[in-house]
Amino acid sequence: MFYNRSFEIDPSTEALFKGDMKEQGRKLMQMITAAVNGLNDLVVPAVQDLGRRHGGYGVRDEHYGSVASALLWTLEQGLGEDFTPEVKTAWTETYMLLAGVMKDAAKKLEKAA
Ligand code: HEM
Fold it and tell me: What is the pTM of this model?
């Protein structure tokens, strides 16, 4: 479906794919799997390290809430009417996800110490 749709949107891309499209589809799925695993294997450990460093800076769990409020307020001021409910939700969820991983990592470090 993806390749058919791509070729519909931009027919000039079809000639670039010379091999078996079934095989190409398998490659696409492999790439998507690698990208998703990359999130777990690369991004999550980096955010965990960031959380542990924040513990060292003296940042406590409750600080994450006040920083979230300040960040959302700033975005609202800066973006004006572009700060739509969707944009607000996207920023809130992204911050909460990062903050959750950071707080968890800092907590585990505290317990181990
Ligand atoms: C999703 C949440 C947050 C993200 C992504 C984030 C990101 C970062 C990054 C990339 C740095 C640069 C230093 C490093 O890599 O260790 C940093 C430093 C710092 N952050 Fe955060 N931060 C977050 C939340 C907070 C919160 C809640 C506080 C509490 C006030 C905070 C306070 C600090 C402080 C004090 C520093 C070090 C400043 C310095 O002395 O250089 N951060 N943060």
Answer: 0.81
The whole-angstrom separation of Cα 92 and Cα 45 is: 21
Q: Is 75 in the pocket of ligand 1 (CB under 6 A)?
A: no
- Whether residue 91 contacts residue 71, with contact meaning beta carbons closer than 8 Å, is answered with yes
- Indicate whether 40 pLDDT > 90: no
- State residue 7's pLDDT score: 94
The encoded tokens of residue 99 equal: 């903050």
What is the rounded end-to-end Cα distance, in angstroms, of the chain? Answer: 52
In three-state secondary structure terms, 107 is: helix
79 Cα to the center of ligand 1, angstroms: 23
For ligand 1, what atom is nearest to the CA of residue 64? Answer: 27
Torsion-angle region of 36 (φ positive above 0: left; ψ -120 to 50: alpha; else: beta): alpha
**One-letter identity of residue 106:** A
